[in-house]
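Propose amino acids for all 174 sites.
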C-alpha cells in the first residue's frame, strides 16, 4: 500500500472519530421532537401516563398519549395519579420542566412522590429533558387533568393499584 493512501486512511479516521471523554450521553435525532418521541417510548412514560397503554400493546395513537390516568397508585405516600403531561406542559416553561427533573429539591406544587421514577430521570441529559418537553408540547393539549393527590389515611374515590409489598395469603393492604 502506498504511503499516501495510508495517510489518507489516517486522515479519514481523524475526521470521522470524535472522542469526547467525560461528555454525558444523549439521544441523537434529526430534530428535538424526534428525540423526545424516542425518549417517551423508551423511557416508559406511556406505561403510566397513557391509559390502557399496556393493555393495547402500545397500539394507541400519539393523539391520546400522556393524557394522564384516573387509576391511582396507593402506598405509604397516599394515592398518586400519573399526571396529564399534555396539559401540564402548556403552562410550564421548558426551564421549569428541566429544573423539575434536575433539581434535587422539588419545585413548589410539584412534589416528587412514587412511583414516578424521578430518581432515574434525574440522570437524563438536559438536552434529553428539553427534547421530551418539545415533543410533548408539540402533541398539544388533550384530555382532562388527572385526579388530585390523596394524602395518606384518606380513602380515594377512584380505582387504585396497591403499590406495597404483600405477604402471601395476607389480606391486601392498605
Ligand atoms: C411507574 C409509573 C410512571 C412512569 C413510568 C412515569 N411516570 Fe411520570 N408520574 C407518575 C405518577 C404516579 C405521577 C404523580 C406523582 C405525584 O402526584 O406526586 C407522575 C408525575 C409526573 C410529572 C409531574 C407532574 C406534576 O404535575 O407534578 C411529570 C412531569 C412526569 N410524571 C413526567 C414523566 C415522564 C416524562 C415520564 C417518562 C420519561 C414519566 N413521567 C414516567 C408515574 C409515572
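Proposal:
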Amino acid at each position: 500500500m502506498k504511503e499516501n493512501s495510508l495517510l489518507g486512511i489516517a486522515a479519514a479516521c481523524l475526521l470521522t472519530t470524535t472522542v469526547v471523554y467525560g461528555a454525558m450521553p444523549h439521544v441523537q435525532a434529526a430534530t428535538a421532537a424526534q428525540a423526545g418521541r424516542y425518549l417517551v417510548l423508551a423511557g416508559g412514560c406511556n406505561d403510566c401516563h397513557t391509559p390502557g397503554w399496556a393493555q393495547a400493546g402500545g397500539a394507541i395513537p400519539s393523539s391520546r398519549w400522556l393524557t394522564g390516568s384516573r387509576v391511582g397508585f396507593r402506598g405509604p405516600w397516599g394515592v398518586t395519579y400519573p399526571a396529564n403531561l399534555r396539559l401540564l406542559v402548556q403552562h410550564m416553561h421548558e426551564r421549569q420542566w428541566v429544573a423539575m427533573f434536575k433539581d434535587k429539591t422539588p419545585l413548589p406544587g410539584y412534589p416528587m412522590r412514587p412511583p414516578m421514577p424521578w430518581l432515574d430521570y434525574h440522570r437524563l441529559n438536559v438536552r434529553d429533558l428539553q427534547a421530551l418537553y418539545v415533543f410533548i408540547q408539540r402533541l398539544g393539549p388533550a384530555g382532562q387533568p388527572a385526579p388530585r393527590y390523596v394524602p395518606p389515611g384518606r380513602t380515594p374515590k377512584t380505582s387504585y393499584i396497591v403499590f406495597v409489598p404483600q405477604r402471601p395469603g395476607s389480606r391486601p393492604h392498605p
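The two ends are 75 Å apart (CA to CA). The pocket of heme C is lined by residues 43-45, 47-49, 73, 80-83, 85, 88, 110-111, 113, 115-117, 121, 132, 149 (CB under 6 Å).
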